[in-house]
């Protein structure tokens, strides 16, 4: 699949930035350049491209959930409903009537389940994907301003994991773990606003003992070089069908 040159250039720049990062992070600031390039070049199809990208991304970590809770098929069912929406096989009104997904997404899927952090993040990825696909806004204007500030500061994905920015943010944490030593950072009792520079300096050099940088590299290589082109192609097919 050949992408427009502006999108290709944004992906290439993001890829090199990710390789240079000690944790192989691809910060939101770089991803926003890709999203902007998609919006500018794809026009009315951009929303569908973002939707397919969110679906492909969430599906990647669905097995994490199903390994721990094999009898619970709700997350898989919800992703299938979202895929049918992208394929134009079901309307938003039918989805809301049959599944009440707007309430599910707004309230999250589960509370206080005895699951691993990775499984918990995989559920968050599914919720975020559903919101992206169905066009459900989960953040208030105040929260959105906070997100914009944190992106500009260069906060890592892990520190915005409950803010529903994009599906990739929470999926990469489910896939590869938390990159920095969060427990040690909490001991420092730093303020996110007044101590932002110290926080960012710390997370750039700290490693969580369970973090797998190879898995993070693997995820972003897949997302940049496989998932985006596939989402683009799926959007073309489902828009013309």
Describe the 3D structure.
- The chain has 241 residues and is mainly alpha-helical.
- The protein has one domain (5-240).
- It has 12 helices and no strands.
- The chain has helices spanning 5-20, 28-42, 46-68, 74-86, 92-99, 101-107, 117-134, 141-153, 167-176, 182-188, 196-205, 213-240.
- It is globular and about 50 Å long.
- The two termini are 18 Å apart.
The gist of it:
The chain has 241 residues and is an all-alpha fold. It is built from 12 helices and no strands. The longest helix has 28 residues, at 213-240.
Mind sketching the topology for me?
Blueprint: H1 5-20, H2 28-42, H3 46-68, H4 74-86, H5 92-99, H6 101-107, H7 117-134, H8 141-153, H9 167-176, H10 182-188, H11 196-205, H12 213-240
Helix pairs in contact: 1-2, 1-12, 2-3, 3-4, 3-7, 3-9, 3-12, 4-7, 6-7, 7-9, 9-12
Average pLDDT across residues? Answer: 89
Rounded radius of gyration (Å)? 18 Å
Strand content: under 5%
Label the overall shape.
Answer: globular
The separation of the N and C termini measures: 18 Å
The overall number of domains is 1
Tell how many strands the DSSP assignment holds: 0
Q: Main sheet?
A: none
Low-confidence stretches: none
List keywords for this structure.
241 residues; mainly alpha; 70% helix; globular
């Amino acid at each position: 699949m050949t992408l427009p040159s502006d999108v290709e250039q944004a992906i290439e720049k993001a890829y090199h930035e990710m390789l240079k990062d000690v944790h192989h992070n691809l910060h939101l600031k770089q991803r926003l350049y890709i999203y902007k390039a998609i919006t500018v070049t794809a026009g009315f199809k951009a929303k569908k491209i973002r939707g397919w990208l969110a679906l492909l991304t969430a599906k990647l970590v669905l097995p994490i959930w199903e390994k721990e809770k094999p009898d619970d098929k709700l997350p898989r069912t919800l992703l299938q409903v979202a895929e049918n929406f992208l394929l134009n096989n079901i309307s938003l009104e039918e989805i809301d009537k049959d599944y009440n997904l707007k309430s599910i997404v707004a309230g999250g899927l589960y509370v206080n389940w005895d699951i691993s952090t990775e499984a918990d993040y995989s559920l968050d990825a599914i919720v975020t994907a559903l919101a992206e696909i169905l066009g459900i806004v989960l953040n208030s204007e105040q929260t959105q301003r906070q997100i914009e500030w944190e992106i500009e500061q260069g906060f890592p994905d892990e520190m915005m994991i409950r803010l529903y920015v994009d599906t990739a943010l929470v999926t990469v944490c489910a896939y590869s773990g938390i990159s920095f030593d969060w427990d040690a950072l909490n001991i420092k009792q730093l303020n996110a606003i007044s101590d932002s520079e110290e926080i960012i300096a710390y997370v750039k050099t700290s490693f969580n003992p369970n973090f797998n940088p190879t898995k993070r590299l693997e995820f972003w290589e897949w997302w940049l070089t496989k998932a985006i082109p596939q989402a683009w192609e799926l959007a073309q097919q489902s828009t013309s069908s």
